[in-house]
Amino acid sequence: MLKIMAGGRVPNKPVQQGPGRSQNPVTPNLPKGQDILFIENVELRRQLIEQIGYENFLQQVGGIIRDRDRDAGGERQLIYIPFDDDEPFMALKVTCPSTGQIHVLRVPPHMRRCHQAAAWIAGFDNPDDYRPALEA
């Protein structure tokens, strides 16, 4: 027997999935981003965020855009997610100018500007010293 689900036909058999688990077949045993937000064990929460990937995590939970600007790839966003019991999650979302691929790169929580975060990623302590002639 077949059931209609999400606009397609699927076999009528039980799905081996616990509550709060991802619907993504690539990561079937990982919790969703919203569930990770409420995990009390800080180290476990950090590991799960890394396992589902920063980009997936941000797509699932959103975040507060602390700053935005433009570089050769287009708009950059500095995204912030506060935690009551740990330092906030802070990431710089950028687009590669040569491939158009989006990258989400974790940065220290004290970052306030996209340029500062990009400079830190490139190894600069002083953002004023970061003036790339070409970005790839």
Explain what the structure shows.
The protein has 136 residues and is an alpha+beta fold. The chain has two domains: 21-62, no CATH class; 63-131. Helices cover 23% and strands 26% of the residues. The protein has four helices and six strands, in the order ββαααββββα. A four-stranded antiparallel β-sheet has the order 3-4-5-6, with helices on one face. A hairpin with a 2-residue loop joins β1 and β2 (8-11). It is globular. The N and C termini lie far apart (53 Å). Mean pLDDT is 81; it is low at 1-22.
Name some characteristics of this structure.
136 residues; 6 strands; 4 helices; disordered N terminus; 23% helix; alpha+beta; 2 domains; four-stranded antiparallel sheet; two-stranded antiparallel sheet; single chain
The gist of it:
With 136 residues, this protein is α+β, with helices and mostly antiparallel strands.
